[in-house]
Design goal:
Uridine Diphospho-n-acetylenolpyruvylglucosamine Reductase, domain 3; 25% strand; alpha+beta; 14 strands; 268 residues; Uridine Diphospho-n-acetylenolpyruvylglucosamine Reductase, domain 2; single chain; 4-stranded antiparallel sheet; 5-stranded antiparallel sheet; globular; 2 domains
């Protein structure tokens, strides 16, 4: 067995976590650990220290105010799925959270951790893009369109910590995904949101990063029905192709999932 040595510290406050991170830039934040721990087990990450922020109550909350739903960074998937405020304001977000991983993952995984990690097959990035969310950090506010910069890459700077995510309430929304039967990660997941400012479509799982489909957005802005996107083809050139599905198949899945997401939105 290969020894693995690292320092573990549990932060008592957000400010203490910031101080710890500033003193040790090589450290990693531990929120839910649903991605970090497996990555460390596979020796794909080797941090010298872990700073545990999972028990910080100041980062775990759900607040509904006016037309904005704000969720703290360390709020668990299960809490989001069960929240009456989330179900009332953005039912598609509650539905999405209830289908992340399995019960164990939903009991530990956090929304902030998911966004910070930006796994190309994670669910929340598609929701953040489609809902035009604002990711708030210890330093600033970042719009979802500017936050996701590539595979496992975000606009977060060294020492910057996500504190909360603000979601504007859409008129309606829907999220559906087609999962790999083994891993349960989506091979294509589509979140569709209709708002007063237009329609936004966020896609996860199909490519090396989350992305929007502007052609679908334009079609749905004119006619918010499944038929509006039925013939909108997604280019397969930049999509993933592996033993599970070709890029062409994933492109087809995006259109199918978009149709189903619109159906879900209309039925809500």
């Amino acid at each position: 067995m290969i020894p693995y040595n690292f320092e573990y510290t549990r932060a008592k406050s957000l400010s203490e976590a910031q101080t710890m991170l500033a003193k040790n830039p090589d450290a990693k934040l531990l929120a839910g650990g649903q991605t970090l721990i497996p990555t460390m087990k596979m020796r794909l990450a080797n941090p010298s220290a872990l700073i545990d922020i999972s028990n910080l109550e100041e980062l775990s909350f759900i607040r509904a105010s006016g037309d904005t739903l704000t969720i703290g960074a360390t709020t668990k998937h299960g809490m989001i799925a069960a929240s009456a405020d989330v179900k009332r304001m953005i039912p598609a977000l509650a539905h999405m959270a209830s289908h992340i991983g399995d019960p164990a993952v939903r009991a530990m995984g956090t929304i902030g951790g998911s966004l910070a990690n930006n796994d190309p097959a994670a669910d929340y990035p598609a929701a953040a893009l489609a809902l035009n969310a604002t990711i708030k950090t210890t330093n600033r506010e970042i719009k979802a369109d500017d936050f996701f910069t590539g595979m496992f890459s975000t606009a977060l700077e060294d020492g910057e910590i996500i504190t909360e995510i603000a979601f504007p309430k859409p008129d309606r929304g829907g999220y559906t995904k087609f999962c790999n039967p083994a891993s349960r990660y989506p091979m294509a997941g589509v979140f569709v949101a209709q708002t007063k400012n237009g329609v936004r479509v966020g896609v996860t799982g199909a490519g090396p990063g989350v992305f929007r489909v502007e052609a679908m957005e334009a079609a749905l802005a004119k006619n918010f029905t499944p038929d509006a996107v039925a013939n909108v083809a997604v280019a397969s050139g930049d999509l993933n192709s592996d033993i599970h599905a070709t890029a062409e198949y994933r492109a087809h899945l995006v259109t199918v999932m978009a149709k189903r997401a619109v159906e879900q939105a209309l039925a809500a």
